[in-house]
Design a protein that fits this description.
single chain; 366 residues; alpha/beta; DNA polymerase, domain 1; Rossmann fold; Arc Repressor Mutant, subunit A; nine-stranded mixed β-sheet; three-stranded antiparallel β-sheet; 17 helices; 12 strands
Length: 366
Amino acid sequence: MPEEKLLQLALTRVPGLGDILIKTLISYLGSAEAVFAAPVSKLLKVPGIGRQTARAIKNYDLKEAGEQLQKLIAKNIKLLFYTDKAYPYRLKNIYDAPALLYLSGNIDLNHPRMLAIVGTRNATSHGKKFVQEFVRELAAHNLVIVSGLAYGIDIEAHKAALKYNIPTIGVIAAGLDTIYPQVHTKYANEMLAHGGLLTEYPPGTALDPARFPARNRIIAGLTDATVVVEAALKGGALITADLASGYDREVFAVPGRWNDSYSAGCNQLIKTHIAQAISSAEDLQYYMQWPAGDEPAAVKVSLDKEEFSEEEWTVIATIERAGKEIHIDELSWKSQIQIGQLATILLNLEFRGVVNSIPGKKYALN
């Protein structure tokens, strides 16, 4: 049994420990093993850890986590702790990212292009038709489509992705053994072979509508951009769009008639400059600067290392190794340079004509 994976799972099951405290503990102590090995006196030095929580850590029975891990292994459910390389780097860079994710299926959560498509549960025939055509046109761009498996626009996006052989991820607000709505189980099963299902909740967690906003932050944080197709003035789609904007991700909305209630949310996002208006996949391609081919062309540069600081050269080398445009979050993760410092370095390199800024918070070498 993988000991560190067991201890990572155990951390998420200790009473009183949430995502932020878990990440703080790891930041101060280095690993889940070090957390459980630390004496109470050392745990108390970690910000946010009181005596009750420290005692809960020391008294936690690892047998319970071990039994849970065996069940997960039997169900072929993967555990992704936020320090794992396979943990989605885009999501890792948001403040309230889950410490642990549960994944079923065969999908790379760090795929170069991740797009969320969300919208109203009460989709019109026009909205469904738009999604089908929109996704069909996106098929050439080698991307992953993410949504929430809900009625309406969400399931239409998943169905279109399956139809056109595009990997798709359903983010759910319960354990992976609870598909909601149940009538979408057929599509959820198909997604396991060409995509996956993702949640922050362990199996056995029942559906609770209060968890939908938390689910939406994963959809927004997991992707490069969010497209809203039909949305009322209130609802989950607008929450996802607001979250994506707050995470400094691109947001797009499909405009509609002024008196159409299911276009009111999209029109409001455009009016308030949270989203850019799009009416086709070609518009999205233009704003995201996606080449017409499947993959961006590899960039080859020849630069003199002596002309740059150590941090600048680290950034240049990281972009070059990527062989394509790279999102600033991924660049920060791979170069191990904080976003604030990285933004300054990129700006200087752009002024010097070394780096090219691409819409979608991505960068490439000139």
